[in-house]
Write a structure and sequence with these properties.
single chain, 96 residues, Arc Repressor Mutant, subunit A, 3-stranded antiparallel β-sheet, 3 strands, 55% helix, DNA-binding, HTH_MetalResp_TranReg, HTH_ArsR_DNA-bd_dom, transcription regulation, WH_DNA-bd_sf
């Protein structure tokens, strides 16, 4: 049975489980906001592939986004990721 405090975290781990999405996340500098053109330039993937991965990351809560003019800017949602990892670590601590 999945612990109730883990509810909502599976999407985060699914999103983080893909190497291409990990590379996209690692392309962000601390507190950096990037638009898709910048992310594509830092990637070996096509714009449509990057767009797909950004959707998965945003839908899981790993990335946040905001439209500014014609561009959509993305940034890492540290709070969501820290919360998910903390829940898992706290569960592990209670099992050992």
């Amino acid at each position: 049975m999945i612990p109730s405090e883990w509810s909502g975290t599976s999407g985060i781990f699914v999103a983080l489980g893909d190497e291409q999405r990990q590379r996209i996340l690692l392309s962000f500098e601390p507190d950096e906001r990037m638009h898709i053109t910048q992310i594509v330039a830092a990637s070996t993937l096509s714009r449509s592939a990057v767009n797909h991965h950004l959707k998965v990351l945003r839908d899981s809560g790993v990335l946040q986004s905001e439209k500014v003019g014609k561009e959509v800017y993305f940034w890492i949602n540290k709070e969501v990721m820290q919360d998910a990892l903390t829940k898992v670590l706290n569960y592990i601590d209670t099992q050992i």
